[in-house]
Amino acid sequence: MSLTQTGGVATVTDATFAEEVLAAGLPVLVEFTASWCPPCRMIAPVLAEIAREEGHRLKVVALDVDENPSTTNAYGVLSMPTLMLFRAGEPVRSLVGARSKRRLLEEFGEAL
Predict the structure, then answer these.
(1) pLDDT 10s digits, 47-82
(2) Among 3, 50, 73, 101, whose CB has the most other CB atoms within 10 angstroms?
(3) Is 37 a catalytic site residue?
């Protein structure tokens, strides 16, 4: 299966979430995003940079909350962007809001 990629960040859907995130061999950073969300647009280049630089140890994907309500509701996501780190199929850390690359890596550091 091929995933749509935007700047190194793959797009996942309700249909591909289990395979691409829960069954992934690497930790996966999921951005719950929306096209109408200004902070989501602000953090997109940061996530693309992290995806390029940390791809050997971390997978970065985005899920559009408007188009994928099942996954969004399953994880109780109410605000965008919500960044959720999954390891071995389980969410291990969650943050809400845009951040700088340095701060994002610091906040997720020990969970990686």
Answers:
(1) 999 999 999 999 999 999 999 999 999 999 999 999
(2) 50
(3) yes
Q: How far apart are CA 11 and CA 110, in angstroms?
A: 25
- 59 burial (CB, 10 Å; 0-12 / 13-18 / 19+) is buried
**Which listed residue (40, 58, 85, 104) is catalytic?**
40
Annotated active-site residue 73? The verdict is no
Residue-number span of the structural domain to which 41 is assigned: 28-109
Q: Give me the catalytic one of 29, 30, 37, 63.
A: 37
Q: Give the CATH number for residue 59.
A: 3.40.30.10
Q: How many independent structural domains does the chain possess?
A: 1
Does residue 48 fall inside a structural domain?
yes
